[in-house]
């Protein structure tokens, strides 16, 4: 019923609007309007709210009450230089068309996007401060300051204003840190943030934010209204998170799953799945399938580094050529090598490797020491020819009784969404516009993304039946920064939340 109404509704709305302009439109009762609006996809719902004042009132009431019932199809949120600094574009998979959304300050194109959950995105501004933003409603919530994330320390100028941050590398052991380096306000976000998650819709007033951050991909969290981040030591190497049944589940690079009870007076944690692999070779995700199974997803990437070498050096050590070759060599070998000697059950080796990795990640002495734009100061010329592409995605079902992973070749009627978003596994029967047994993906490798902000992003749709990848839309959407991200539109207005 909902899909039929959604398809018919635009022509009905157009006819109603013509009648309204002619001055002879019949008034529909608000409860009838709200019953109809509740069955619409968000793009149709937003259009309905712009028809006339009575429809607008019904739309606002519905959004405040959260009474819409239609399962919202994920959309791709991206930006376009031609659209403007404060404009985001929303590509609807249901309608196969894009919409423009005006975003609150600071400009969306100046931010990093590090997460998407419950219709909200998590962004880092040019002071490396985090904000929650609902692109549909324009609501925005400031999260606790980055200076409360261990081990970040503010550096004050003579007027007592924070103008830099100190941030050290980890050198092994829970409390062992190297001498801190100094970062400009905007540069810190390039090295500290990995991915962020929400426990629930912030418009309802109570929620948790979980943050995977460096060094060592550790976890911190904050609750609605909190003025600081709480660190969750001593675990490291986390890849993905999932809130479920009041608990935070976190997946690390060995396939191990930890469960944290953040609402307890003292945070408790337990391991619910032991490690299932010894080496880091892929990006990893997990999600609950409609069947109830817990899935682990492993995604491997490939680069065109041979072509990149030729483009960069042309056989000699021209300016920046050697530095760039060393950088891409480290990047490929440490992140996408065939076999990385990173055995996670050997803690000493683990920490030693991670320390080396983080030292490289912090720039190997290439960090700018001024407050100017890091894009102008860091040696990043001619990286346009460097390409990172998804070349394989494997899906496993977690067998908790056998404490192992079971390789599955088909998702059946399920659909996966991977990227900086909360990892989603949806039933295509509920979302008829989506392709069953397909994986929709966007790029989410912060190591590559934050170093090569101007490069083409890795997005597409993988058919698991024949392992072919197609563009999300043809002609292909072009958006390099901020990173495109999956979003389930949420038109609900905030009812009790501290926001700016």
TrEMBL record:
Coiled coil: none annotated. It comes from Oryza barthii. Signal peptide: none annotated. Residues 358-384 are annotated as: Disordered. SUPFAM superfamilies: F-box domain. Residues 358-369 have a biased composition (Basic and acidic residues). PANTHER family: F-BOX DOMAIN CONTAINING PROTEIN, EXPRESSED, OS11G0579600 PROTEIN. Residues 22-71 form the F-box domain. Residues 370-381 have a biased composition (Acidic residues). This is F-box domain-containing protein. It comes from the Eukaryota.
